[in-house]
Amino acid sequence: MRRRVQPLRWVVARQWRRWLQRRGWFSALAPFVLVWLLMAAAWQQWQAQQVDARRVQLQQLPPTLAPPPPLAADVRAERFEALLPPRADLPQRVQALLDAAQAVGLVAAKADYQAQPDTVAGVVRYRVTMPLRGQGAQVLVFVQQALAADPALALEGLQIKRESAASTDVETTVRWVLFSRLSVMGNP
C-alpha cells in the first residue's frame, strides 16, 4: 500500500493544534511577550543614556547670569512714582479718554470725576465714571485702546446694559482710575 504524502500546510496546522491543546494559548504568546519586554527594557536603557548625555551637556554650559538682588522698598516706590505722570496732566488725560471714546463711535454723555489723594503712597487716584452709549464691540475696542495708551490707567469696573435682546446698542458705565504723582509743596 502506498502511503499518501500530506501537504505541508496541513501537517503544520495539525501540529500547531496539538501543541496548543497540550500547552495552551499562553505558551503560544509567551515568546512574543518576552520579545516585547526585552525591547521595552532596551528602549528604557537608551532613554536613560540620552538623559544622562543631556545632563552632561547642560553641566558643561557656562553658568547663567544671577538675577539682580531685590530692590529696597523705597527704591521700588521711587521707580514707580517716576513712571506716573504729574497731577497737572489729569485734565488732558481725561480729555484723551473722552476723545478715544468718540473716535470709536461711542456717545459719551457726561463724566464724573473724583480725586483721592493718598499721602502715604504719594499718589493721586483720580476716579472717572463715564456713561457711554454704542455697540458692544466699540466698547471693547475703546477699553483696549485706552489701556494700551495710558500705562497709569486702571479699569475699575465695567457695567453693560442692553434695552432688549434684539438691540445692538448697549448702555455702558466704565469706571476708570487714573494714577498720578502727588504734588509736594506745590511742585507737580
Describe this protein's structure.
This protein is an alpha+beta fold and 188 residues long. The chain contains five helices and five strands, in the order ααααβββαββ. The chain has helices spanning 8-23, 25-60, 73-83, 90-103, 136-149, and strands at 107-108, 112-118, 123-135, 153-162, 169-181. Strands 1, 2, 3, 4 and 5 form a five-stranded antiparallel beta sheet that branches. The longest helix is centred in the first third of the chain and has 36 residues, at 25-60. It starts with 7 loop residues before the first helix and ends in a 7-residue tail after the last strand.
In helices, the fraction of residues equals 40-55%
Gyration radius, in Å: 39 Å
Give, in order, the helices and strands: HHHHEEEHEE
Biggest sheet character: 5 strands, antiparallel
Give the end-to-end Cα distance, rounded to a whole number of Å.
Answer: 125 Å
Number of strands: 5
The assigned structural class equals alpha+beta
Mean pLDDT: 84
> So how many helices?
5
Categorize the overall geometry: elongated
Uncertain runs: none
Share of β-strand residues: 15-25%
